[in-house]
What does this fold into?
Amino acid sequence: MPKIDAINQKILRELSRNGRISNLDLAERAGLSPSACLRRVQELERSGVIRGYRAVMDPEAMGQGFLAYVSVGLSEHTKAAQLGFEKAMSQAPEVRECHNITGSREYLLRVEVADLAAYKRFHTDVLGTLPQVNALTTYVVMGTPKDERT
It folds into this structure.
């Protein structure tokens, strides 16, 4: 595992902002020569610090302008219930993130759909049919003043 020193932190910060930045620009921003920068990036990739690169889509441009977070309580606190719920969420395209959390609920979902009617269908036809689900609380996102994933 490479040491995450100040230079590697700069590299990671720049790549998280723009994964398509050229090595020349990245090297300049990190204060390195292009060859030294490339070696560091390759080592960060090889060691698994950088797991991959991806495109960040605009949900509204894709017709998915409705965003909600949903806390989910399970009816049973067993490994089988967790695995069944996680499998169902992995197959639900509306679920963009599924986190196993601490507290009074077991999961937090980030759900993106077209509109309230589409969310109601997901809530009723997907979440409402899972035998593992005992409780749901929906938090509708009205605005996003900060999101470092974009």
Notes: The CA atoms of residues 64 and 113 lie 5 Å apart. Residues 6-46 form a domain with the Arc Repressor Mutant, subunit A fold (CATH 1.10.10.10). The longest strand covers residues 66-74. The chain has two domains: 6-46, 66-140.
